Amino acid sequence: MFVFSLAVLSLGSLVVSRSVASDIRRSFVPPGPGDSRSPCPLLNALANENIMPHTGQNIPIALLNQTMREVLNLGADLTDALVGGAQQFADDNGTINLHDLATHNVLEHDASLVHDDAAPGAVYAPTDTNKAKVAAVSGLSTDGVGLTARDLAHARVIAEETSLPLPDNLAFAANVEAALALTVIGDGTTVDLAAFGDLFGENKLPEGWVKPTEPITLDVVVGIASQVAAAKEEFESI
Ligand SMILES: *[C@@H]1O[C@H](CO)[C@@H](O)[C@H](O)[C@H]1NC(C)=O
Ligand SMILES: *[C@@H]1O[C@H](CO)[C@@H](O)[C@H](O)[C@H]1NC(C)=O
Hints:
The protein is mostly helical. Helix content is about 40%, strand content about 5%. One 2-acetamido-2-deoxy-beta-D-glucopyranose binds next to helix 2 and helix 3.
């Protein structure tokens, strides 16, 4: 489960810098019919880029852990929180299929920015990207160049208005997802629309992406998620 605590707020340096060329090997191939994919654009991208097994099947938790740390440069605390969420789906041999993460209302939730809601009574939510939703979120960019925490909050409010209310933990998880986008493929403040389109629209790592120079910590992500939550309240009060 997501085990973030709002008590660990820290609004220190939120800037994510990337100055060093990445040495990761990527080769993007869209998923084939038998490939297992999740509702998480980032995990799908890691499989599509052949950084994790392209089938998306029998992925060792230990590999997920190592990939988040070494490829994405997520901090140890953030990695543990995210891997801990995935771990509940692990088999006895410690592996998951990406599609396990589509189990409705465990980690996956309605009111996704780019997926349709789960059908009533369905065990699994859809993992296909709704391209119209990707375009609609991009259209909320205030400056037409990138999406800020405030723009993503706007998108979340619109998504949540048209779905059943989210359980509190999943509403918070959704804010964390926006914060992950802002840090993993953004600079902590903004995600370029092209990068957003690559990751959320195509499930590929953005063109020219390199990993952050400093690990992305749980504190930073929770701090940005709290900015998203605060901006949502502003939009909801309009
Ligand atoms: C991830 O790997 C680190 C380093 O090997 C380890 O200390 C940690 O417990 C692992 N986390 C999970 C959730 O498996
Ligand atoms: C793990 O278990 C699943 C079924 O429970 C099996 O399909 C898979 O091949 C196993 N993976 C490994 C690495 O042993």
